[in-house]
Design a protein that fits this description.
Elements lengths: L2 E4 L6 H4 L7 E4 L6 E2 L10 H9 L2 E4 L10 H21 L3 E6 L16 H16 L6 E6 L7 H6 L2 H4 L5 H12 L2
Parallel strand pairs: 1-2, 1-4, 2-3, 4-5, 5-6
Helix pairs in contact: 3-4
Length: 182
Amino acid sequence: MTVIILGSMGNIGRRLMPVFPGAIGIDRVPGADIVTSLSDIDYDAPDVRAAFEKADGVIHVATSANVGHPDAVHWQAVVDTACLLAACDRFGIRRVVIPSSDWADPYTRWSDQNPNVYGRSKAVFEAMADMFNQTPGRHCVALRIGWVAPDKATADAAAPWLRANYWDTEKLVLQMQAALGN
């Protein structure tokens, strides 16, 4: 299976690239196979088009995981994800994983947190996954990704409520593989 990983150079993407042999990494920073941001991606550019025509699946982790980022960042993530799912539809990609969070309503762990734009954007992602799945044979999961600390020392030093939702690399990989349908 050929997989495109959007956000391939980020904290999560770097962990996933080696797990999917032949994965095509797309990120806004140098080092990715295709360097572009999700906001600026041209799905008709020859290299992007070739990647999407070749891919069997997409893992999208090119969004901010920072609850405190300005609302505009989370609004843009919704727009970018909608465009990505439209491209997956256009290119016939049937397996897609998009990011959600426990901040999405209904809350699963942090029910005492106040609703915010970040959480609402993740709830929209979940609705988009449901919409994408309305076509028979499609498999899109809005995965409620746990906290993926940059390293074990950071995880060990975190507050107990955050450590309780910590995903090490092994759990991250297993959850992504299951969500993708591998």
